[in-house]
Amino acid sequence: MSETFPEGLQDFLHALNEDMRTAADWGAPADYIPELAAVDPAQFAISVAMADGRTISAGQHDKPFSIQSVSKVFTLAAALGRIGDTLWGRVGREPSGTAFNSIALLEQEKGRPRNPFINAGAIVTTDALLDKRAPREALAELLQFIRYAAEDEEIYIDRHVAASEEATGHRNAALAHYLYSFGNMLNEPDMTLGTYMHQCAIAMTTEQLARSGRMLAGLEGAPRLISADRARRINALMMTCGHYDGSGDFAFRVGLPGKSGVGGGILMIAPGKASIAVWSPGLNYYGNSKVGTEAAHRLANFTGWSVFGA
Amino acid sequence: MSETFPEGLQDFLHALNEDMRTAADWGAPADYIPELAAVDPAQFAISVAMADGRTISAGQHDKPFSIQSVSKVFTLAAALGRIGDTLWGRVGREPSGTAFNSIALLEQEKGRPRNPFINAGAIVTTDALLDKRAPREALAELLQFIRYAAEDEEIYIDRHVAASEEATGHRNAALAHYLYSFGNMLNEPDMTLGTYMHQCAIAMTTEQLARSGRMLAGLEGAPRLISADRARRINALMMTCGHYDGSGDFAFRVGLPGKSGVGGGILMIAPGKASIAVWSPGLNYYGNSKVGTEAAHRLANFTGWSVFGA
Amino acid sequence: MSETFPEGLQDFLHALNEDMRTAADWGAPADYIPELAAVDPAQFAISVAMADGRTISAGQHDKPFSIQSVSKVFTLAAALGRIGDTLWGRVGREPSGTAFNSIALLEQEKGRPRNPFINAGAIVTTDALLDKRAPREALAELLQFIRYAAEDEEIYIDRHVAASEEATGHRNAALAHYLYSFGNMLNEPDMTLGTYMHQCAIAMTTEQLARSGRMLAGLEGAPRLISADRARRINALMMTCGHYDGSGDFAFRVGLPGKSGVGGGILMIAPGKASIAVWSPGLNYYGNSKVGTEAAHRLANFTGWSVFGA
Amino acid sequence: MSETFPEGLQDFLHALNEDMRTAADWGAPADYIPELAAVDPAQFAISVAMADGRTISAGQHDKPFSIQSVSKVFTLAAALGRIGDTLWGRVGREPSGTAFNSIALLEQEKGRPRNPFINAGAIVTTDALLDKRAPREALAELLQFIRYAAEDEEIYIDRHVAASEEATGHRNAALAHYLYSFGNMLNEPDMTLGTYMHQCAIAMTTEQLARSGRMLAGLEGAPRLISADRARRINALMMTCGHYDGSGDFAFRVGLPGKSGVGGGILMIAPGKASIAVWSPGLNYYGNSKVGTEAAHRLANFTGWSVFGA
């Protein structure tokens, strides 16, 4: 790492932003959610919440984007807070080896999703958080949880995106009904699905997202929302399962626990050092941000923050 | 961690050994390799090679055991040394979501194994290391690599175990012929299989194994056999794929890159801090050491070495 | 066959009924549809509609039962009548090699069910028959089709059974939403599902069912609802796919095209010779009538009607 | 059928031959067996062994071709003759829903192949026939069985084809070793594989093949090699499993029990009426003869021999 770090880091982020903006191939935005498909892929932002309490950024770091599956990290943390480790009786902790929306594995595993970060597992986690309440109530709790984590009251749910998903969410509906048929849903599928779709539609800037991850990085001054133990375990899940069937490659190339969303955001945790958010809406083959993954790779190289290095 | 660490660590290891010896359920040794099935499960050893150059141990740390799949780490390192990153054209880097000896996924992926730590991937890696040489030659190179890493010339291949496997290795033979049919084998299946079975039959003590992992932990004084970059990436693979379909759970509970073998050994890496080997021959549901996994869990808690914690 | 056939056949049916009534193990009724689970399994009926125009029976042949998946034969015939062979663009004609309600294969085949007799394929067929109409209209057409085929106006839909299924049909809802997500549904899932569940709830006696199959057997005097060509092809599908993952065994043991339902009914076709209906509500491992299958086996042996014999 | 049948049938076969010779697309010969890949695809022959004892033909009916998987019918008949119905403990009777050489299903079914006509099942059947004897002995018995069935001593094993397969048979070797690992092989894999490859290399003309099928059709004058009961059951298996993952479509379009081979041959049985062999070396998507399937379809239409028609 540059000797003048963290000063050098700010320079690095600016240079990285410049570099990324010349990307030959931004990838394509998710095409199955109309509101997202319309987003210009040639956008980029990165923010780093540091151990010293500062958050530094580059690019469009104050532009809210749809966090989509990144929300699964917060839902998991909130659900664990609500019902504790009994959640693990309903969802596993293993990589799936399949696409994020696969239903085949669910049949084989008799309705217990492999982990909370594939869609089926996130639906179960949302169902646990919902816990027979009105969706409005559970969503308010989740939003409050994230706002508190980021210390920012402006984080909101984008109703247009939520509505956009409802029209196309038949794959998720299939998962929900399937889980229900195995007795792994406590609420009516439509209740859980509505909650799930709204949580995916939470909009955040990279700055807000990076700050909300400080609790997972165990940074001093971060709001105390979860125990160190639980943070460590959520980080472990992000490492092994956070990028769907590209998780192994992300660990190999970047070496940080991370969770991606089809909105093009990625949240990464460097335990004890930083919480990082990157965003660029175009996706790669696995449904993870193409330019964002490249930026993560370079940042990890520059900082030496990989958890796998000496 | 105890303030008196690493002095406190020695005490902890002794206490851990005492505790583990009272295990109510040791698990059962692998039953499909006759030489291993005959091993007394009620055995335990742990060794920690530390940053200060010392290696401390408890239990039967000078008793050689069959490292079995732990050898896949060394074969991978040696094969990468021989042919470089072209290896990744032949084998992936993703968790498999299936048992260690599954062949179904291989059909779906058209003969490219998901990662180098499931049997199919390890056979491909061995095939790459063999590289049209005589098995004897490749095995000599591999053994030399490990001896050099451990700085111990006494590490050897247990011919009885190798012979024991040859009689029962039809599942591996199926994988090898299958890989061959997809053009993902350079050598005749029998050549690669013979090499593979002998490498699995390497015998080491926990002390030797812990010392051989120092290169991956990037400890000062460790023999320079691989670059820091490559070590980091091998560690990443150990984290996401090192315990077969129990990898996610190991990451969740222990938080260290690790590779297990059906001989009951586990090698774990705490980057910059230590290389750890634990051994107990009885296995759990996933084919990983039952008591060894528990010991790893406790050691991680005591030391705070999880890579996911602040 | 007895020389005095068909006179001998009536005697055989009576003897068969006597024999079946002493069954040591009737199997268990389908447990996932409350109205069916409550049915007494110790019931049996058989009817044979013959080439000479007569229908002979034994057992409880005038007791209506829920035909469930046997309805898929009629829906297929009616849908082919409505939209013709374009249906085959949406559903295949191959045995599935999996359970009747599997969703895994559907993922692999990208939303095109393997055949019209597994649930996914029947839902698509129903969707084709519904064809943007009100469910009531499509159901009226289907019921009229069956009544005409059986020349019996008393055939009806059992609303209690339909309601019973709606409460438990989440597995089918999962299939419907999944098909929709692949673009293989023309109507809203709820519309198609409602139609599907009502058609499964059609109640018939074995006598009515046997008579409704005369069109498939090509018996003289049968109402002309489908061409000989189409009848032949539906029979072929019944042979290869009519008993889910027990189709091969039914062909092997009985040798007649047949379609079973979880209500315990089986419709069998002996081309040019007879249409046969058997009913007994207890099911075997594959979800086909246990005693009914045994009776079919004995009838085939007695009559020599297997299509595979000289 | 033409009123002047069977006289009209001879004319029809000649016309069919003329028509087929103008095929726009013959398909491509199997490419993975070098000796077969070199065969000119633009060839055609058809032979019909009739109830009156005569065999009539058109095209290249006296040219031997490699029967390949058609041999599985004879091996099954011979193995059942040797060990009886205990064979069904080792192999199932259900369509597989997968490709002929799939290994994935075998893992799921724990080493019991779905039916005797996919490669895994045929290897088990061959293993049963081999029954600890020398391959030479079992092959002699099988060849004698076929020669006797066809009443033709000139049927032979093409050693060039057998050798050609041995060089490329790694997929089959994988299946054999895999079966062995599950305890479903009595002989050393190499012994069974050698036998299997030689039986696939049997060469026959369509005339010989049609005549050898008379026992299955139950034609008068056919050599009495198997009981009527067994013939009926083998026919059932040919119907549901004889064309791999194209079996349902063949039943739908042709309506006769049939077994195809990648050499381009198809044996079809019209119970009580005829045994038919057709040959054309180019294959369709499922690995069945392209022009041969079309010819079978037309023959079935002309004769009305479909077992599913009135």
Automatic annotation (TrEMBL), chains A, B, C, D:
Keywords (A to Z) from UniProt: Acetylation, Hydrolase
Catalytic activity, reaction form: L-glutamine + H2O = L-glutamate + NH4(+)
Record carries keyword Nuclease: no
EC class of the enzyme, as a word: hydrolase
UniProt GO molecular function: glutaminase activity
Signal peptide: none
Record EC number: 3.5.1.2
Residue numbers binding substrate: S69, N119, E165, N172, Y196, Y244, V262
TM regions (residue ranges): none
Pfam family, one: Glutaminase
InterPro entries cross-referenced by the UniProt entry: Beta-lactam/transpept-like (IPR012338), Glutaminase (IPR015868)
Subunit text: Homotetramer.
Family: Belongs to the glutaminase family.
Annotated protein name in UniProt: Glutaminase
Organism of derivation: Roseovarius aquimarinus
Gene (UniProt): glsA
